[in-house]
Amino acid sequence: MDVVSDAISAVRTGRPSSNRLRVGGSWCTRLAPYEGAGFHVVLAGGCWLVPETGGEPVTLGAGDVVLLPHGVGHVLADSPGDIARAVPFEQMRRPDGGGDGREAELLCGKYRLDRSRTHPLMAELPEVVHLPNRVGRHPELRSAVDLLANELDERRPGACLALPSLLDLLLIYMVRAWMSEAETGSWPSVLNDPVTTAALRALHSDPAAPWTNDRLAAAAGVSRATLARRFTALVGRAPMAYLTWWRLTLAATRLRDTDDSLTTVAREAGYGSPYALSHAFSREFGVTPGKYRMGAGSS
What we know:
The structure is a single chain. By secondary structure, the chain is of the alpha+beta class. 44% of the residues lie in helices and 18% in strands. It has a 5-stranded antiparallel beta sheet with strand order 1-9-3-6-10. It has a 5-stranded mixed beta sheet with strand order 5-4-7-2-8, with no helix packed on it. Helix 3 runs antiparallel to helix 4. The protein is globular, with a radius of gyration of 22 Å. The mean pLDDT is 90.
């Protein structure tokens, strides 16, 4: 596994949900804050997105994609003016256009995320990731948008399976596109550094291996001192500290998503016994693995 895939997999739960929105004339709707991540794909026309946290309004055009990775509340409207008129999204009437040339069609949806163990790559995404439709930019994202538009007809054979799968791809492509254009944040720099990337790929490919600083430095093709300096400066943790955190994150994910025994979870996370895992897990998360699993099952 690569870091981006693992970072997304660690927080993704359940299946994404989506709704098609067709509007026209004067309209304004509010989407409440959400524990997961919201997204919008503008299929036709255009609109405005106004974050409720005080951010600048964003104009969206046909083919634009926007990700709200921290679930911030926001307003969608035909204009950024009087957003006090916004009605809740759940109560929004969806007429087929208003006949005044301001029709818009969007795919609006949500990803369910477990934020208790958010990877720092996901944590540093901005509140609003706007990816405009530009010729020649992010072709895989553009292809996903085109495929989504074609799968919105639920009468097509297999559409009910194709749509959530495409939405999962969309999340990967949105994060990837942000990383290629980001002007802030440390993780785009992390994954552009060949030494740190090699070390992270080794750790993520086999987290249960008996890693040491010397062994990891050899995998990255540098000295131990060089690895420690570059990895710590970019990632913000020493290599072995990152490995410990990632192993426990993986253990938490398996406790949440599987019925595997604690012995199996411990072995696959690189711990020699359930006791060793329980001790480290309690120190990191403030709760035993058993209680964590019960809490995840009831949420």
